[in-house]
Amino acid sequence: MERLAGRIILLWGWRRALVAFLAGALAVLAQAPYDFFAVCFISFPLLVWLLDGATGEASDGWLRRLRPAFAIGWWFGFGYFLAGLWWIGQALLVEADSFAWALPFAVVGIPLALAFFYGFATVVARLLWSNDIGRIAALAFGFGLAEWLRGFLFTGFPWNAIGYAAMPVPLLMQSVSVTGMVGMNALAVFVFALPALLVARRHVRLGAALLVLLVAAHVGFGYVRLAAPEKPAERNLDVRIVQPAVDLSEKWDASVRDRIFATMMGLSAKTPEPGHDKPQLILWPETSVPFLLTERPDALTALGDMLGDGQLLIAGIVREEGGSAASADARYYNSVVAIDDKGEIADAVDKVHLVPFGEYLPFAGLLGRFGLEQLVAGPMNFAAGNERHPITLPGGIRALPFICYEVIFPDLVAVDATSAELIVNVTNDAWFGDTPGPYQHFRQAQVRAVENGVPLLRAANNGISAVVDPRGRIVDALAIDARGAIDVRVPISNQAIVSSGQRRFNGMLIMLLLALAACALNVRQRLRVN
């Protein structure tokens, strides 16, 4: 082990960049759908040893001395994001004639940009670097800070945050209900990097003790939480989730819209399976209605006829306002609407956090001059909604809807008992086919249920549609590309351990403690040298 660490530390040039790249790419195997988290006990010690050798010339300025550390983090991040996000290119192949040219920019360009966050992480770590366990704390703080920034800078894209690698199953998800993703990201890196101390002269026993203690606490808390009796359900909600598996090549084809709508209606109106009551709520995926309801009032009439007394439909639609579809003043929103048994729209919520280049074109005026346009979401640019509010379901249950990738933002999905009792996520992951993307998306939605201690209802066009309980367990689900509907009785009870504000505080406290430990050990080492 010492010989291996020594060779890694002494690597230079392209060999050092290649090892960093491969270490990052290997770490992706810890994410869904692979869930092989043990690889991180290889990737992060390699990263530690690479950073041990990332020293500049003594005569260089401090910025030049940090360049090697940044390069290692950047190459690690490039490997991680390239291996973890290559499936984004699948969306461009749906309409390959129009968008295949953008494939290199999506598949390579996005990882190139995201890698800067991990380059920043290793620079922060190197600034606080010291021998032995101090550098492990520094690396954990650097990554925790980088992942926190990745959640909101440049509109935010916290996809595949490192913390998810430590939560492949519900048993290992429960800690996030206390630490939040901020704390989980930092603690995961700390634990994954601790094996680097096996070749250290000091703090080996301390590192081993902390590794055992933190893993045992993580597993033990999950076991106790899952074994504990659940709070009695205050109410129950009978739900039907519809997964139509519509081919995206037909999605906006006017000649097949009626057939798509009829498929949705048929799946919604079928007789419940034995042992299940008539659904009170029917849930359709994102943009599942294949036309503007303002142009098809007959569709609302048909929905009213299909819905029984007291039933409610929540459907993803494209909502238009400000003029007719042909008007230049018309604005379009990616929305969900609640339609009652009279065929009337009882409520609507617009998507607030849009996907750049997918649902709208940033700097449209400038980029439009070069012939650039949005890439994948549909035949129009979307406007962002102003606010989100709960939709009241039968029985007075409040459900907070999140459309597509909005659910990956922990601070956006900060649900408590005063705001909502249920999370609803509608999406159209068919853009990405049967690739790791839909599985990664579902995993992040699953963790939101655990964080907030409320059930999650998820409807996806081609999967994964599911009902998840407040502790992250899948009650029922439909697989990728399956067409059908699931009926589930969902107990409604809030099982959050702490509030969203307390989770945020706990996560920041973990980050602070790691930073203080790294700083203290860094200062002590400097004093010894001097």
List keywords for this structure.
single chain; 530 residues; alpha/beta; Nitrilase/N-carbamoyl-D-aminoacid amidohydrolase; 2 domains; six-stranded mixed beta sheet; globular
The assigned structural class equals alpha/beta
Shape, please? globular
Task: Kindly provide the name of the CATH class of the largest domain.
Answer: Alpha Beta
CATH H-tier superfamily of the largest domain: Carbon-nitrogen hydrolase
Oligomer: single chain
Distinct helical segment count: 15
Query: How many runs of DSSP E, i.e. beta strands?
Result: 12
Number of domains: 2
Compute the average pLDDT.
Answer: 91
How do the helices and strands follow one another from N- to C-terminus?
A: HHHHHHHHHHEHEHEEEHEEEHEEEEH
Strand content: 5-15%
Largest sheet: number of strands, sense, barrel closure: 6 strands, mixed
If classified by CATH, what would the architecture of the largest domain be?
4-Layer Sandwich
What is the percent of helical residues?
A: 40-55%
Ends: how far apart? 31 Å
**Which strand order does the major sheet show?**
5-4-3-2-1-12
Low-confidence stretches: none
CATH topology description of the largest domain: Nitrilase/N-carbamoyl-D-aminoacid amidohydrolase
Radius of gyration: 25 Å
